[in-house]
Amino acid sequence: MHDTFVQRSGLLDLLYQTAKDCGVDLRFGVKVTGYWESEDGAGIRLENGDKVAADCVIAADGIHSRARDIITGEEPVPHETGAAIYRSHFAADIIAGTLGKGKYVFWALPHRDVEGLSEVWLQPADALRASECVKDWPIGKKTTAILSRTPPGSCWNHLLVSRRPLSTWVSKGGRMVVIGDAAHPMPPNLGQGANQAIEDAAVLAICLELSGKGNIPLGLRVMQELRHKRVSVIQNAAIDEMEKSFRANWDADQTEAKPNHVPHPVWVLRHDCIKHAYEEFQRVADSYLNGREYIPTNAPVDGVFDCGDDIFKSAGKPS
């Protein structure tokens, strides 16, 4: 939902507790050194020599995925932006705010000062340094007042790195797959990185349920057909939006020269991936098994990001 915000740490806690309640075998601090698949299964090799076997391998190991090249045979060159972003969230009682029903304040500040930064995700930063980026803005004093209230340890600074879409997410044997940022990392300009990862997981679970234990490769391939085009369009659009914002002439008098609208298309934010997966699974499976092309119904047919039908405009709200 476009108007639902969840603190990532809270989401991780929820996922962790749910996995525990389901009896999932969780292992922390374990290094994976290899991947394998056969006609009957797939698995991983651990640093201590153990071999873990399963019906399939689902690699969700992020933008720096070690599994991606092994599973897909592709390792796309990182899309270097020359930019980074400060991010912070903290309790709303420190300052006024409305996020999370008034519980949290969140701010983000893309910038070009990337000296000394690496691609490590969490790099603590000083919010006062971020305020240097906005001190000359017309509203610089008001903005600095917010940044100055950011509690120590609540601000991070990381590089903006992405990659263009892969041609496949599924291994040749059909028993291994990459999802989330391992498959389609994207910058935060559309706010869809985590959302699309969650959609991946939901659709994958449904496809494995419907394909059954006896046909795991079909389930993984149907999942890819249902997801790949949709996510690739969003991924490319997020990169394009980021580049547009950094190319903009913010000193121009013309409003058209400044990107002042983040797209909120209905087809992205109102999509029910669970309902869609159940409805489309058999049609996709039949197309795959009979060698026919499947035309996705959850993305623009021409592959061009369509932002004409905006949820805020249709609701009469400012965007």
From TrEMBL:
- Chaperone: is it a keyword of this entry? no
Q: Which Pfam families match?
A: FAD_binding_3 (PF01494)
Top-rank taxon, per record: Eukaryota
Task: Please state every residue range assigned to the domain named FAD-binding.
Answer: 10-210
Q: Which InterPro entries match?
A: FAD-bd (IPR002938), FAD-dep_Monooxygenase_BioMet (IPR050493), FAD/NAD-bd_sf (IPR036188)
Keywords attached to this entry: FAD, Flavoprotein, Monooxygenase, Oxidoreductase
Q: Which GO terms describe its molecular function?
A: FAD binding; monooxygenase activity
Q: Which family does it belong to?
A: Belongs to the paxM FAD-dependent monooxygenase family.
Specify the protein name: FAD binding domain protein
Which species is this UniProt entry from? Answer: Aspergillus terreus
Q: What is the lineage of its organism?
A: Eukaryota, Fungi, Dikarya, Ascomycota, Pezizomycotina
